[in-house]
Amino acid sequence: KTDDLSAKLSDVRPRVHVETEKERRGNLYRRDEDWVKERERRRLDALTLRAELEMTYVTGKPQISCSKESWAIAKKSHEEALKKAAEEEAESRKRKEKNVRIASEINMKEISRIKEQIKSKSYSKQTVVSKEEQKRRVDKLSQPKQTIQAENAHNKEQPIKG
Fold it and tell me: In angstroms, how far is the first alpha carbon of the chain from the final one?
């Protein structure tokens, strides 16, 4: 009976597979190999995703069927750029003309102010001087100036009367 019982118990007990050292190393090697393959697959997926993102806005080969539309779009953008450049040029020209006009107004005001000053002063009046007066002034200017030292020297030479 004990043999029957032990046979029944052996059937009921789960069989545990005991790995040998060789099997265990083989499993470790396979796990490492699987890990490396998964890592490489993820790296390649990331690279392809990055390449796809970089190529998102690249149009590639022109589509001949849509060439009229693309030419129309290009022409429209070109015309818009020309219009914007023309507006900026016109605005710049207006600013320059305004600055020139302001500068000329300032110059005209300055010129008129100077003319008014000239008119208000009597520089243009001529006085009549007789020839005798002119001769006397010229003679006075032609004589050497008498300085204080010259006067002192002149006074020393004259005897003092007392």
Answer: 186
**Cα–Cα distance, 156 to 152 (Å, whole number):** 6
For residue 23 the two structure tokens come to 């099997």
- Considering the entire predicted model, what is its pTM? 0.32
Phi and psi at residue 58, to the nearest 5° = -85, 125
Amino acid at 129: V
Taking only the tens place, the pLDDT of each residue in 72-105 is 888 899 999 999 999 999 999 999 999 999 999 9
**Between vectors from CA 114 to CA 110 and to CA 116, what angle results, nearest 5°?**
115
- Residue 16 DSSP class: P
Look up residue 33 and give its amino acid.
E
Q: What type of residue sits at position 93?
A: R
**Rounded CA gap, 46 and 151, in Å?**
112
Q: Cβ of 136: how many Cβ atoms within 10 Å? A: 11
Model pLDDT for residues 8-47, shown as the tens digit of each residue: 555 555 555 566 777 777 788 888 999 999 999 999 999 9
